[in-house]
Amino acid sequence: MMPTIYTASPGSTFKTVTSISTPNKPQNYNINQLIAHHKSHSSTVFTKKVPCTPATLTNYMDPWKLIEERLHERDELEKKDGAYFKAFSQLARLLPQGNASLAEKERQVLISENETLIERLNQQTLRLESSEGKVAQQDKKIRSLESTVAQLNSKIDHLVLEVAEKNRTVEIINDEHLVHEIQQNVLKEEIEKLKKENESLVQRWMAKVAQDADSMNQGNEK
Fold first, then answer.
1. Residue 130 domain-assigned (yes or no)
2. Which tens digit of pLDDT belongs to each residue from 15-67?
3. What is the mean pLDDT of residues 124-141?
4. Which segments of the protein form a coiled coil according to its record (predicted)?
5. Does 106 map to a domain?
6. Which domain holds residue 22?
């Protein structure tokens, strides 16, 4: 990627802005101190005013010359902060190991959680199978009880029919008994009537016999 080419008229002033770190170098930094120190100085910005002369204008209009200057500035910056770059390179080598260790710990945790979940799932599966077995037994009992209930209901229906038939038979017997009582009462009345007629006939016959006897006695006396 080519750098930006600046154009200006002679006599003007360029401002070149470069974001670099310019800390005072402490002694015996550890990794955490280097990180904190770098963060506290990483935003230091300085502005350099460059007078716009034909020479500087030519340099800024030549992109390769500008690249060379930037590379030179980078080299100078690396020389000044060599300890920091070295510390950060060591930190860069240590971080993957720490990340790998952390990843391994996380992997072990995930494996443990996965095993726990699998065990819980197996337990739930066993409980579910046991519950399904109990449900199957309950369903079998329910079907057996339903069959028994159906048989009992059928027997009840037959008994109801038998009771209804017996009730009709009892009604018929009661009706016949009532008829027999009525007939018996009629016969009793007829018997009483015949008795009275018989007594009347006997009395009349005895009266006639007595009259005939008296008539015969009177004829014999003459």
1. no
2. 443 333 344 444 444 445 545 554 454 444 334 444 555 555 555 556 677 78
3. 92
4. 128-204
5. no
6. 13-80
Token code pair at residue 194: 């015949």
Q: Residue written as tokens 């007629």?
A: 197
